[in-house]
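Form 7-S
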Amino acid sequence: MAKRTASAKKQARAGAKRSTRNRARRSEVKTLIVKARKALSDGSAETTERVATAVEAVRALDRAAAKGVLHANNAARRKGRLARQLAKVAATAPAPARGKKAASAPPPAPAPKKK
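Output:
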């Protein structure tokens, strides 16, 4: 059935605009997730770079969920998967080497207790 009233026609136009905008946002989020997953699985990239791409993907997921482009549970599930992958990378990464200054410095004195 064709749209007859002016408001129905306007709603159809607005819906088309919204759907193209949402499709673009959803595509951007998917691209960022793929980049983050590749960075996390690739061993050649630096750890800080890996974390940065993962954080960027998580921020994009949060924005998409806030705007209603993605369902909140969908975004949470994807963030959880990224976090799990990031934790796996962090567990396998070697501990950072401590320099001479950090190794020879005594631990800081405990703060006095307040009454």
